[in-house]
Amino acid sequence: MVPNMKVLIVFAHPEPRSLNGALRDVAVEALQAQGHDVRVSDLYAQSWKSDVDRADFPSLPGDARLAPAAASKLAFEAGTLTADVKSEIEKLLWADMLILQFPLWWFSMPAILKGWVDRVFAYGFAYGVGEHSEKRWGDRYGEGTLAGKRAMLIVTAGGWQEHYSARGINGPIDDLLFPINHGILYYPGYDVLPPFVVYKSDKLDEAGFEAVAARLRERMSTLATTPPIAYRRQNGGDYLIPDMQLRSGLEDPGVSGFALHVGRSQTRHDEPDTLGSATEASAAVA
Ligand code: FAD
After folding, report:
1. pLDDT-based confidence at 271, cuts 50/70/90?
2. Is 157 near ligand 1, meaning CB less than 6 Å away?
3. Cα–Cα 20 to 30 A to 80, which of 31, 109, 221, 285?
4. 237/74 Cα distance (integer angstroms)
């Protein structure tokens, strides 16, 4: 018996008939068939405003200097964030599971989705939470407002899986997605599941699509049970406070860079044993 989940998909593609649009429909159908409640924030369809500016803070006096973080804090505390932002925050609080879905554009998320994060992840809600002192650097990286909830990415990329492997020229996919998985999702508390990545997506034909859809359905059926990426918790003892450096000797030999912040011996998704065969690579899931 799969426990009922509330799932929010934040979808960032301008064309509903795109590959991304078709995969979103597959995900929604699969989730609803399991009895989950699903809501979709379709950012282009909503004409989402992606830039942070004065209009976001209607209670800020006209002659006041705009300091975005301070204005965000005041507006969140006073309940004066704009209605579109409040509505997205309400959805995040409602959902047990957040999925961000997007095509990889210039090695990152489309600007409209970054703008959703910039505006919705307000000060006091997603950052600036908890005690900040010499003894504690806030509730973040595994703690915070969204702790206890899960999140994952659905990403399509034009490049091959090999190009995003440990020695691939594009850089390892886990490193490219680290700022999103660790910096945006883990930061306010989410447990982050391994991403679902479609490689060679521009070359996908109907048979390739069916293979990808089958893998996506499988991932949608294991959202509650898939182990999250084992990012280290800020306040779990692995980091020195207040300089927030990983204590020496905790890492596996030879590990450096972003991988330092994943607990010992967890398989990275760009390691050779997770690479499919060359023919499978177009439909591979990382
Ligand atoms: P679409 O163009 O909609 O479709 C892709 C293919 O899937 C088409 O051939 C389509 O026929 C086929 N398809 C099969 N079945 C279906 C179905 N049922 N419904 C719809 N289509 C189907 N790639 C990288 O790897 N790294 C980058 O940094 C990068 N930067 C980019 C920057 C920009 C500005 C752009 C425009 C592209 C970039 N790309 C990059 C490529 C990009 O990631 C892909 O074009 C994108 O992921 C493809 O997804 P889509 O939904 O737009 O596909």
Report:
1. very low
2. yes
3. 109
4. 32
